Amino acid sequence: MIGSTVDEHGVAEIVMDNPPVNALPVKGWFDLAAALDAAGADPAVRAVVLRAEGRGFNAGVDIKELLAARDHSALVGVNRGCAAAFTAVYDCPVPVIVAVQGFCLGGGIGLCGNADIIVASGDATFGLPEVDRGALGAATHLSRLVPQHKMRAMMYTSATATAAELHAFGSVLRVVPRAELRAAAFTVAHDIARKDPNVIRAAKESLNGIDPWDPKRSYRYEQGFTFELNLTGVADKVRDEFGR
């Protein structure tokens, strides 16, 4: 489900591969966090490329796992797992470059919003269909990708934005054909890997330190409303309708 390798230039490649849509279960989110933490802890690693196999980059959480749970344990687990994975991207001591193809939804937005650099294929679309799943969250990260009012419209309507739109906003660095996506991400990563690693690690830490808000804290605030919707029964109703 989560694979990791390091090339001769010090670029770690972490790959999500969970057919059919790369929706990750609880364990998958924690495994992703562990892979990112391990890459950042390796002094030989100078940059990380996070990408996926299959039709899309990431479809968020595994809704079927939530529907199958008899209690809230899966919900608590996946919320903690997502928080851990998003934090691992943000706190990784080296730059994280995400390569996005196809759909990037829900948790995928959390990964991209906390990444340092985004490269996308021309068919990539980004969205937060959380309200259609009886949940909230990752508006924190979407607001790092699109302007405030665009984020609100996307959140309320579950509309998606294209890679071209995000490129125009400046949040996607390059838009390339899908066949060139991995190579484009590695071009950026290798450019970073040629720099002094001590300077790059200091730059990453300093840039996180001047962020206007803490995405870890704001995401956990959002998650509180997801728990509230579950405790009141609203989320169960919406999820049941989605699962039919």
Automatic annotation (TrEMBL):
**One Pfam family here:** ECH_1
Keywords from UniProt, A to Z, are:
Lipid metabolism, Lyase
The record ties this protein, via InterPro entries, to: ClpP/crotonase-like_dom_sf (IPR029045), Enoyl-CoA_hydra/iso (IPR001753)
Instruction: State the family it belongs to.
Output: Belongs to the enoyl-CoA hydratase/isomerase family.
Q: Which NCBIfam families match?
A: PRK07938.1
Q: What is this protein called?
A: Enoyl-CoA hydratase family protein
